[in-house]
Every structure is written in structure tokens, then in C-alpha cells.
Amino acid sequence: MEIKSDLADISDTLLRPGLVECRALDKDRPMRDSKTFGLIARGGLVCYALVHLLVAWLAAQVALGDQAKADKAGALQMVVAEGGAWLLWLIAAGLAVLALWQLSEAITGHRHVKARRRVVRRTVSGIEVVLYGLVSYSAVKIAVAGADDGQGSLVAEILAESYGQVLVTVAGIGVVVVAVFLAQRGIRKTFVRELDFGGASGPARTTTIRLGQIGWIALAAAYGTVGVLTVIAAVTFDPAKASGLDAALKTLAAQPYGGPMLLALAAGIAAFGAFALLDARFRKI
């Protein structure tokens, strides 16, 4: 009887490869099981939310006539101006952890889903590596130098090269493609797959999803404008038109009915910031 029982156990194990795979995955991801890492990652998401709430506030100021810089670097510079250099280092560290986490997910993560969907999930993680990484880099740069991000001068340097016009055009088109991806993320609510609403109330779940939809679409509109302006800068050889979100917001403000449009965009970015706070609570880490 004992022999039969042992054989049954072995057979059951062989017939359930998913169980073996899950155990192997658990061993492959010790960092994800770390409570300390989870707390830092959630703290990074809170920092990410704070940056977007500041950007929304600055965008609203531009819409109301204040020409203060209103991109992410401008929001971080405002933190420095208020004596919060230490907060910038905290933001940079938290977002760096988020970027590293998403990098691991982009390379080896999401193995529990089907192959086709796994490619999509890893692509999403790759985009988040860039988003988190850029804000982290900006925070470090401003904390160290306290200077502008220099995006405009970088575009000018690239355009000065023989291959510069093509490279900047491709970069601008790439940003537009990312913007389209972010928009469908909000429209199709695919971000919900990354959230765990276990124990959450119905209103909390609904609020999180609605803020996510509005926020991702607003973010897509902002990035889309940046991408279009970058392409225009390449075509016209005018790097001043590709100075980031700051120029995009001011361009919108200069259009007919630009003030109301920019206020609506600021509200959308604020919605994304609020969503990011809830994301820090419900994200699967």
C-alpha cells in the first residue's frame, strides 16, 4: 500500500507540471516575496503619484496664465525650491526600485499567463521601466545640480548631427505610439490586470478604475502632444519646439479655448496622480 501511495504521489506530481513551475517561479523571484521590497515599491508609486499631482497643479497655473515651467522636471524643481532636496533623493530611490522591478518583469516576469499575453505584459513592463527611470533620473539630476533638464539642448545637439533629423523624427513617432498605447490602456482598462482588489469595497474598486481610465487617457494626450511637437521640431529644424511637456502644455494654452482644454488636461493628470496613490495600495507586488 505504501508503494502504491508513493507511486500515486509521483504520478500526480508529473501530471501537474503547473505546480512544479509555480514552485520554481517562487524560487526565481525572492525579491518579489520581500516585504521590505514591497514597501519600498509602494512608496515609489506614492512618489510617482506626488510628481503627477504637482505637474497637474503647475499645468493648471499655466492654463490660468502663469508661465512657470510645468513638466515633470519643473515639478521636481519646485520641490527643491521648497527645500526638499532630501525628498528628491527619496523619489529617485523609490522610482529606481520600481524601474528595476519592472525591468525584471520585462525580462523574465509574467510567466503565469499565456505566451501571447505574456509578450504584451512584458512590453507594458518595459514601457514602465522607461517612465519610472526617466523621472528617477530627472530627480537625481535636479537634486545634484538644481538645473533645468536640458531636453531642448539635447534635441539641438542631436539635430546638429547628420543623422539627427531622422533620429529625432523616429523618437517623436515612438512617443506618439506610446501615447496611443497608454490611451488604449485607459479605454480598455487593461491596467486592472495589475491590481488586486481582494478585500476592497465596491466603491473603492469603482473609484480606482474610473480614475485609472481618466488618468491614462489624459497622460496619453499629454505624451501625444509631446511626440507631435518633437516630430515638428525635426521637420522644421527647430529644437525649441521639442522642449518636453512644458512646451506641449504652453502650446495647448495658446490655442483657441486653450485655457479650458489645459484645465481639463490638468484635471486628468491629477486623476492619474490620485489613481497612482490607489495603485500603490492595490498593485500586485
From TrEMBL:
Entry annotated with the keyword Heme: no
Top-level taxon of origin: Bacteria
UniProt entry keywords in alphabetical sequence: Membrane, Transmembrane, Transmembrane helix
Sequence ranges assigned to domain DUF1206 in this UniProt record: 44-109, 130-187, 214-283
Transmembrane segments: 39-64, 84-103, 124-143, 163-183, 214-237, 257-278
Name the record gives this protein: DUF1206 domain-containing protein
